[in-house]
Amino acid sequence: MAHNVLKTIALASGVSTTLLFTGFSSPAFAMSPFQASYQFSYNGKNMGSATRTLSKSGDDWTYVFTAKAGTMASVTETSHFSLNDEGHILSNSFIRHSKVLVHNNSMSINFNPSAKIIHTKKDKQANSFAWISGALDELNAELQLREDLKTSDLKSSYPIADAKGVESRRFIKQDNEQVTTSYGTFGTIKVVMKHNKPDRDTIFWLAPKLDYAPVKVFHQDGKTSYGLLLTDYKGTTNQSI
């Protein structure tokens, strides 16, 4: 259970939105470092905390997601990438380490566009498949979508790599909503990520005032639900919104 909670919230916090937003007006900010903290819950009960941190060194960017459910479980995901002049992310590598009680798991992705191949390894199982132009990982996909959202140059789907291949993810924009968190109340864009199963949905509430960072995430999978709610944010803000 703990592994599913952490894996789902990691995915949810790493992927945000992709359809044209309306009802807000703001200048386009360039990608900039930030740190966001969250509280996450399982079936309505608070279980722990999570953080996301984006940093830059030279032309190299690093995006890290961490989550911890007490002493029971933890996960760390790290994405390394660069950004070209058009604002497109060029994926380099992704790695996930998770621990549930005494059990450890890992998964890595290495992007090799020059050889047009992607290598992955999940625990001891290695795999490789064809590289696709614009392929992203679960973490940097959220950043690419946010950059596209700022310029209104958005796609209906994005190619996201996992251990087995590259899958196109589709997002549907719904109504704008006000969301109250312990950090404040924000006008948000509500977006649903569609899954292949009819009883599974992931919903994101994105705040333009916080550079389109998600302030709330909710995932429903049958009778099980997971939640993520902002508790702190340090980074670019738009005070006019």
SSE map:
Blueprint: H1 2-14, E1 34-42, E2 45-57, E3 60-69, E4 73-83, E5 89-100, E6 103-112, E7 117-122, E8 125-130, H2 140-151, E9 157-161, E10 166-181, E11 184-194, E12 200-207, E13 213-221, E14 224-234
Antiparallel strand pairs: 1-2, 1-14, 2-3, 3-4, 4-5, 5-6, 6-7, 7-8, 9-10, 10-11, 11-12, 12-13, 13-14
Write structural notes for this entry.
The protein is mainly β. The protein has a domain at 2-169. Helices cover 10% and strands 57% of the residues. It contains 2 helices and 14 strands. It has helices at residues 2-14, 140-151; strands spanning 34-42, 45-57, 60-69, 73-83, 89-100, 103-112, 117-122, 125-130, 157-161, 166-181, 184-194, 200-207, 213-221, 224-234. Strands 8-7-6-5-4-3-2-1-14-13-12-11-10-9 form a 14-stranded antiparallel beta sheet, covered by helices on one side. The chain is globular and about 45 Å long.
Tags for this model:
single chain, 241 residues, mainly beta, 14-stranded antiparallel sheet, 2 helices, 10% helix, globular
Uncertain segments are: 12-27
Radius of gyration: 17 Å
What is the general shape? Answer: globular
Q: Give helix % range.
A: 10-25%
Order of helices and strands: HEEEEEEEEHEEEEEE
The major beta sheet can be summarized as: 14 strands, antiparallel
Structural class: mainly beta
User: Using DSSP, what is the number of strands?
Assistant: 14
Strand order of the largest sheet: 8-7-6-5-4-3-2-1-14-13-12-11-10-9
**Ends distance:** 39 Å
Q: Strand portion, in percent?
A: over 45%
Mean pLDDT: 83
Number of helices: 2
